[in-house]
Amino acid sequence: MAAKRDNPYGAFNFRVEFGDVDGGGPIEAGFSDVSGLGNEINFSEYRAGIDKFNTMRKVANTFKLDEVTLKRGLVGSTDIFEWIKAVRDGRYQPRTVTIVMLDESRNEVLNIVLRNAQPKKWVGPTLAAKGGGEVALEELHLVHEGIEYE
Fold first, then answer.
1. Do residues 71 and 33 touch, judged by C-beta distance below 8 A?
2. pLDDT > 90 in the chain, percent
3. Predicted TM-score of the model (pTM)
4. DSSP 24
């Protein structure tokens, strides 16, 4: 599905989709920010005594996946907190989470898929009575077992 073009896509047109899970309802996914999409490959160093060069070879082994943070305005929905509560209470509820990138015409151009995503942390809004006019935001931190571009 990835659509290649010369100019980069804007970072402001996207939606987040949560796959269904047994015993868990849908999640309203109007998020304003997605961050932490990344992974890192670990390497071991190895050199045999008969190697031609005196440098260490780099041998790929395991990899690490970054924690993904989603932010949305507090809209009175309890769906995220219910998911966290279910996992906290011992229910295994991994979901496929898909970040769908959209072009300027709102056409789908790329999917970033998180496999077996689970909630790790919820952060409620910072509240201040000074009347600054900021939006009350909540954060959901996810761990996952794989990231793919489609």
1. yes
2. 74
3. 0.87
4. B
